[in-house]
Amino acid sequence: EDHRVSVSTARSIAVLEQLSDVHSGGQEMVIHRTAVPAPAAACLLKVGPKKEVAECKEKFASSVDPTVSQTFMLDRVFNPEGKSLPPMRGFKYSSWSPLGCDANGRCLLAALTMDNRLTIHANLNRLQWVQLVDLTEIYGERLCEASYKLSKADTPRGELGDFSEFQRRHSMQTPVRMEWSGICTTQQVKHNNECRDVGSVLLAVLFENSNIAVWQFQLPFLGKESITSCNTIESGINSPSVLSWWEYEHNNRKMSGLIVGSAFGPVKILPVNLKAVKGYFTLRQPVVLWQEMDQLPVHSIKCIPLYHPYQKCSCSLVVAARGAYVFWCLLLISKAGLNVHNSHVTGLHSLPIVSMTADKQNGTVYTCSSDGKVRQLIPIFTDVALKFEHQLIKLSEVFGSVRTHGIAVSPCGAYLAVITTEGMVNGLHPVNKNYQVQFVTLKTFEEAAAQLLESSVQNLFRQVDLTDLVRWKILKDKHIPQFLQEALDKKIESCGSTYFWRFKLFLLRILYQSMQKAPSEVMWRPSHEDAKILISDSPGMGSTEDDQEEGTSKQASKQSLCDTGKAMDIDDTADDCLPQSSDIGGREPMEERLLEVQAQIEAVEMHLTREHMKRVLGEVYLHTWITENTSIPTRGVCDFLMSDDGYDDRTARVLIGHILKKMNKQTFPEHCSLCKEILPFTDRKQAVCSNGHIWLRCFLTYQSCQSLVYRRCLLHDSIARHPTPEDPEWIKRLLQGPCTFCDSPVF
Fold first, then answer.
1. Phi and psi based region of residue 90 (left: phi greater than 0; alpha: psi -120 to 50; beta: remaining)
2. Which of 32, 143, 532, 638 is 20 to 30 A distant from 258 in Cα terms?
């Protein structure tokens, strides 16, 4: 949901993050790549004491019974380290959690290695992935404590020296698949009888012996201490191959279950009874969606919530890839009970389906086979159930002859990510395979713009795939289309939501980049000679204060130098970038247009800043007593809001009047930590004391960040400070917010 593609490989999980970069003038898609490395040590499942396990392995390997010795030697679950066989290194599956599960409010990544190690990873500091917990190890310890029995009523099994018991203990903790549920919100009563909302998420893990472990995690997930519970369910399905969460909302009651598919063909929904989760409902008994043992393995299952236009209620569409066919099942709750309609879509592919994905916004399903053919299936409701319209997407027309290995659709349905290798050329297979992730556009610019204007999400970061199409169009045409500009202005006039102001700021920034001249030199290449000339020839090197001010001004203007695309020679900076008063009348039209767009950008940024200041002041008023000193520069924010005579906002004036009355003539100014001088609030971006010490301001609370460590938003728009233990809860909540200009998370 946060626009990251995970690709499981033999060395690592490659994570490709799509960014809609407002500081780049290139039309190419911007991809940020990181990786989750594969663990170096092999995973050994805990089936008993180490000494006893080693003795049993030696016994089975040297057994005179070939059914025991050969089965043991060739089973990689028993021998993950390999010895004479190649090592089981790499990942075979990964699954993304919903948005808002890690400490930064982003998605967690559950990863399953080839040697059956299940771990959860988080991208906490932007560039590095951190393993938070090893669920395989924890689950093995729990089974060991329970003597490898699922319940106390279970009869004791045989000893570890029995080969069937040895196999059973391994199969009951060998993961096949794992999937995340949606976020559940419950209320927790505190010691002072206040209620606070606590979020939790479930992770279902399907094991080889058909058991399912359902982990419950408290959010934000920080590690082992965030594990709330673990319940094991017996599915009763032979040779399970895949699972998915079934989530259905009926009359404001959320119901959940687990859809499990078998390698032999059957598909059914299992009830998930969780007593610890309040407001959670499930089925009374399992529901069989397909019961035929037709030897068509279930490869992938997707559950899509939809609205039935004829029945006037919500429904749930379950689609499953079975061989070369797509099995679908429409679930609908009515007064008569649960209605189930199912069928198969045939004639899609001549080869088995290798991957399937679904756009949950409109219900469109995409399937692909290894011959490079992708099918788009669009559900159309009928009076009774539904039917599918499908069309072929020939990747060979775009990429040439290719073989496909996997597909995934972006959260808003703008792009399709496809893993490809070279196909056959003149009837011959390629000598080497080069795996690539290709991105195919599924929407036009007009469709993306309309979806952004009518969005119910109202968050630019969660719609990066749509904004990237808009970005490409503006950079290509070097202007904002008239229909988009007029529609956006109408939205701003009618509702005034800050989302549309942020969308306007995004469009203006892209327009500004499209009007820049391309730099004559490569921007990242350092020019050491110019730097040396500057140091030796610059006058006035004796004044430390002047140097500090000069360095500060250069740092502040560095971004504008990059933006305007001027030549980056240090000697010519003063002549090229400082506008002369005599040149105003003779400027080129493009320069005047640039200044006009820059003025519009500053005006929109100031409007968004004022709106956020009002929100911060509202929090201050609600959570402070009379003459209480907070770390937020309340008086400075009030004075900054009222300093502009042209700004007339009655809501702001009334709020400021109440706050000043509560402050009772107290000012509570900030002080510089270096010289103890007062830090005046004259700029929303930085604070400068009388001795020239400069501190950047937090854009979430407008406090000065008087430390060397702070956070920055994903697109480097703004900076924010880290929360401290002394901060009250309402300040910590403010610091959890996204960027006020681009909706990006803060790292």
1. left
2. 143
Distance of CA 60 to the CA centre of its chain: 46
The domain total for the chain is 1
Note down the domain range covering 85. Answer: 1-234
Question: SS3 breakdown of the chain: % helix, strand, coil, rounded to 5?
Answer: 30, 30, 40
Write out the two tokens for 701.
Answer: 């609370």
Count CA within 13 A, CB hemisphere, residue 728: 12
Backbone angles phi, psi at 613, to 5 degrees: -60, -40
- Could you tell me if residue 126 is left (phi over 0), alpha (psi between -120 and 50 degrees) or otherwise beta? left
**Structural Rg of the chain based on CA atoms:** 30
> At a CB cut-off of 8 Å and minimum separation 6, what does 553 contact?
none
646 to 611, 641, 653: CA distances (angstroms): 15, 11, 13
CA 10 → CA 7, 119, 166, 342, distances in Å?
10, 16, 28, 38
Is residue 167, in this structure, part of any structural domain at all?
A: yes
SS3 for 395?
coil
* Rounded CA separation 182/692 (Å): 51
The conformation of residue 202, written as its DSSP 8-state character, comes to E
Quick one: tokens of 37?
Answer: 């490395």
Rounded to a whole number, what is the largest CA-CA distance in the chain? 99
CB 506 within 8 A of CB 467: yes
**Residues 1-15: tens digit of each pLDDT:** 999 999 999 999 999
In the sheet where 109-113 sits, what is the strand order?
Answer: 91-96, 109-113, 118-122, 130-134
β strands within 117-209, DSSP E: 118-122, 130-134, 175-189, 195-207
Nearest to 720 by CA among 131, 223, 105: 105
The alpha carbon of residue 204 and the mean position of all alpha carbons in its chain are separated, in whole angstroms, by 20
User: Is 268 within a domain?
Assistant: no
DSSP state of 541: T
Residue 68 lies in a domain: yes
Query: Taking Cα atoms as reference points, which of 119, 109, 97 lies closest to residue 39?
Result: 119
∠ Cα 350 356 360 (to 5°): 140
* Among 322, 377, 325, 374, CA closest to 346: 325
Least confident segment among 30-39, 57-66, 280-289, 577-586: 577-586
Which tokens sit at 503? 């969308």
Its sign, for the CA torsion 703, 704, 709, 712, is positive
Contact 150, 171 (CB under 8 A): no
Identify whether the C-beta of residue 709 lies closer than 8 Å to the C-beta of residue 697.
no
Check pLDDT > 50 for residue 537: no
Cβ partners under 8 Å of residue 214, min gap 6? 202, 203, 204, 205, 230, 231, 232, 233, 258, 272, 274
Output the DSSP codes for 57-102.
HHHHHT-S-HHHHHHHHH-TTT-TT-TTSPP--SEEEEEEPPTT-S
Q: How far apart are CA 303 and CA 562, in angstroms?
A: 47
**Contact call for residues 695 and 686 (beta carbons, < 8 A):** yes
Which residues have a Cβ under 8 Å from the Cβ of 381 and sit 6 or more positions away? 308, 309, 310
Strands 118-122 vs 109-113: parallel, antiparallel or unpaired: antiparallel
Q: For residue 491, is it within any domain?
A: no
Q: pTM here?
A: 0.86
Least confident range from 13-27, 133-147, 295-309, 657-671: namely 657-671
